[in-house]
Write a structure and sequence with these properties.
The structure is a homodimer. With about 450 residues, chain A is mainly α. The first copy, chain A, is built from 23 helices and 6 strands. The longest helix of chain A has about 30 residues. Chains A and B meet through helix 3, helix 6, helix 11, helix 12 and helix 13 of A and helix 3, helix 6, helix 11, helix 12 and helix 13 of B.
């Protein structure tokens, strides 16, 4: 696939506008997005201008903010106006929140008056809250009308909203009192009144509900859309399933960043200043550096041992590295199991037992490898020296596997986020404990 | 929130069945799932049996396979039969594919004959393909009927399908020739024929399309459902947006596992045997162990230097650790940027420049920390010794930041998966290169 895309890309300059227009409009959007990454800015603009308006909107809302930024800059005023006119207000708000102030102003000026009003309303809310991802374009009706009237209403106003599949029933104060799905309407006689068939026990979220929480609610119920209410139960807008895709992806990014020892707040890399990147990255590096220097004292402490067996120091990096790797494996399994709900607390005993056996087997396997490597490959050590190192490594791996599983579970039980604590912090703990185990076991076997 | 859930949990035994039934059926499903983790098996079964049938289905399809397994085992035959009768066939298939053979048989036996047939049909397909996540319960009509007839057909058959919001138009060979949304139907006169208003240029996937690819297609188009076709263009089933939520989460798990140096294939932890866990974890550990022992030769090589400056060895673990941490940070940012489409190839130059500056600032900051720590905290070294270590660390951090950004981009450009290569493999490269830089810079400054 990638190969084909690269071929199209390489032959792009040979294609006439008409051919390129056809190809770019008919290829699956996913492929177009893949191809996009290989294009120069000039080629990208050429392709973009050839797309249909609907496809332009689909593409630009799928791009990263840095791509959005320069692409919007390269558009003519009229092109930008038509584009933002077509876009859903919540997508416009997403773009406004991500791009630089100058582009933001250009986008703002290209909006129609009614779009400006909707956008202003949405910008009032925190972008991490449920209200921050909702659209104000939904269908609302009163409870006293009939199904037939409701269908006529949907026909008249359905073109301007994000979904016609749910219709929201509100009272005179705009408070939500019921929900009707288009499916429900189909199965009931036209003369029935809305209040006699609407769902009164509907699922909803509050404006200040965290967006991840809101996403989980929609996901758990498999609903196409979810109403967002203020504290007086007034309907502010709706969250649709496609917004939830974005939230899950964002959440994913935060978790991955945390595993990489960074604060989880999403700021796209290219849009971040050097200063903000340093600010985000240095706190954990300093904490881990200071914690890590415990190993400095440790090696200093074991210097007498090292005088008698200098070869032990040759293996220090590989011992800590391997301990870290096996600990990371088991903590990764736990963190993920907790996140997906696969692992629950009552499993703690079983898990530790399992990790003990797995760690033992891993330790024995790796000990065998390092024993052979130590004896047969340069710098070359005696077999009893290699035995000491192998035995020590086995204990380190066993310890790391068990602690790597235990720590995330305990951290989660205490109500903290195991994602942040795992990874590098675990590595530091394992470095310190692992080195101690290494020196102690080796000295015992070498009888020093 | 967690606190409240724990409170409910702690008072569970005080609640009468009627109260518990009301609470458990009315609380948001997400909260119920959170509470579930704190329950003992006995309590969990009690709560489950009090749920409404719809909620039972929602809950059990949201649980991990290990939870599904024992829960199904604890149900009476009749309870299980009613439950699986209510469930969507693709959800039944998911459960069948995850649980142990004995539970699988019990589930199978509890299915009605028609459910067995649907399930058998679905089990023919690979669970990682588009066809593996589709449901065969969709609405299909012929092109010659009118809108009015189509709506009557939907009314008659809509209760048995997963979505009524798209209706699929097929010819006499079951080949898909058009798609009509319920929204489209609303806006057209009842007497119009389907063929005159159906969308012929519809989005679809093939049965063998990878499920992640299919998920991306649905996501890019924001469709509620996507038809799955065989190679003769016959309609096999549809993928709905809620299946895509599951695919995104699975994909997420695979990526996280890869970052933790494990093969990405999803096998729930608790359901995996010790042997399969060892098999999945040991390959990378051995590769990294062998690669990591290059540091053994390296320290051996620099032994003459260490004889003159023994304190250098005290800082070896913290130097490799810090190099690894800063390299992980920048590679994490790249991997994620590539995954979200935020970073494209033409940005390579800008990124390396940025990482150079960021790495320089991080290096200077961390050098300052280790200088102060070296001089003022035990074991205590001379200021010029601390200076040598600090300068060496700065270079290591600078190198790690740049290489951590460079490597994933080059790996991706070559058509490989940067997720697997990053993390531990990066750490090994940084260990080796970092130690060399460390020893060289330190010996230069110490004039040894």
């Amino acid at each position: 696939m990638e190969q084909i895309l690269e071929n199209i890309h390489e032959h792009l300059h040979l294609l006439k506008d008409e051919e390129l227009r056809r190809i770019a409009n008919e290829m699956p959007l996913g492929d177009l997005l893949d191809m996009w990454r290989f294009l120069s800015e000039e080629e990208a603009v050429r392709v973009f201008l050839l797309l249909s308006l609907e496809r332009k909107v689909n593409l630009i809302t799928s791009l990263g903010s840095n791509e959005q930024e320069w692409l919007i800059k390269s558009l003519s005023l009229e092109n930008a106006r038509v584009l933002f006119e077509e876009m859903e207000p919540d997508d416009v708000v997403d773009i406004l929140q991500e791009v630089s102030p100058s582009v933001r102003e250009a986008v703002w000026n290209s909006l129609s008056d009614s779009a400006k009003q909707l956008t202003k309303f949405l910008l009032r809310f925190d972008e991490d809250d449920a209200a921050g991802i909702m659209t104000p374009r939904y269908l609302a009706i009163r409870q006293t009308i009939t199904i037939g009237e409701a269908i006529a209403f949907i026909r008249k106003n359905g073109a301007d909203v994000e979904t016609v599949y749910y219709v929201y029933v509100v009272d005179q104060f705009k408070r939500l009192i019921g929900v009707v799905s288009l499916k429900d309407l189909l199965f009931v006689d036209d003369t029935v009144r809305i209040e006699d068939m609407m769902t009164r026990n509907f699922v909803f979220v509050r404006e200040e509900t965290d967006q991840e929480e809101a996403a989980k609610t929609l996901e758990a119920h498999d609903h196409i859309a979810l109403p967002v209410l203020d504290r007086y139960n007034r309907l502010l807008g709706i969250i649709t399933f496609d917004d939830v895709f974005d939230v899950i992806r964002e959440e994913q990014t935060e978790d991955v960043y945390k595993m990489g020892a960074m604060e989880g707040r999403i700021d796209p890399y290219l849009g971040s200043s050097v200063f903000s990147l340093v600010k985000r990255r240095i706190p954990w590096l300093i904490i881990l550096l200071i914690a890590g220097t415990i190993t400095t004292n440790l090696i200093n402490l074991y210097e007498p041992l090292l005088l008698g067996a200098a070869f032990l120091i040759w293996f220090v990096p590989v011992i800590t590295q391997t301990g870290g790797n096996s600990g990371t494996q088991s903590s990764t399994l736990m963190i993920r199991g907790i996140a997906t709900g696969e692992i629950v607390f009552r499993d703690l005993g079983r898990i530790l037992l399992k990790e003990f056996v797995v760690g033992l087997l891993l330790g024995i396997g790796l000990a065998l490898v390092i024993f052979l490597r130590g004896v047969f490959l340069p710098p070359g050590i005696e077999w009893f020296q290699a035995l000491a190192i192998a035995a020590a490594l086995a204990f380190v791996v066993l310890f790391s596997s068990v602690i790597g599983a235990f720590a995330p579970l305990i951290i989660y039980r205490a109500g903290l986020d195991p994602t942040v604590m795992a990874g590098p912090l675990m590595a530091t703990v394992i470095d310190v404990a692992g080195l101690t185990i290494y020196f102690e076991v080796a000295s015992l076997i070498l009888n020093l």
